[in-house]
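Quick one:
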Amino acid sequence: MSIFKKAHKSPADIVKSLKSVLHVLFEQQTSGRKMDKAFEDLMKNLASMKLIMCGTDQHEPQSELVAQLSQELYKSEIIDIILKNLSRIDFEGKKDFTQIFNTLARRQIGSRQPTVEFLYKKNILDILVEDTMTQTLL
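Output:
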């Protein structure tokens, strides 16, 4: 084990970091270097989330970490924020978020599908239609 190896962030840390990055990107009026750094951090956080949710070719996703990340995403309302601003995220970020969202949507605990229940309560279809209408008008 190398002493220089980076420690992996916990799901709670990733979600907290992602929420602060999203605040900078979509709620504050920032530009220049700070905006570039925020987009870079967004991509890193989405990649970390995708690694937890989907695993790699060599390692399967750990169900405990997937459950923790899912719960953090539900509590933080990050799904709503990203969906409302999906058109402002670059192509690679959209691809990562799509894989994360797809994995969340297919997640099943017994006969329950917690993400589907969460999305139903949030009326997610309205959010997606609103974003599409906004893009059409621009």
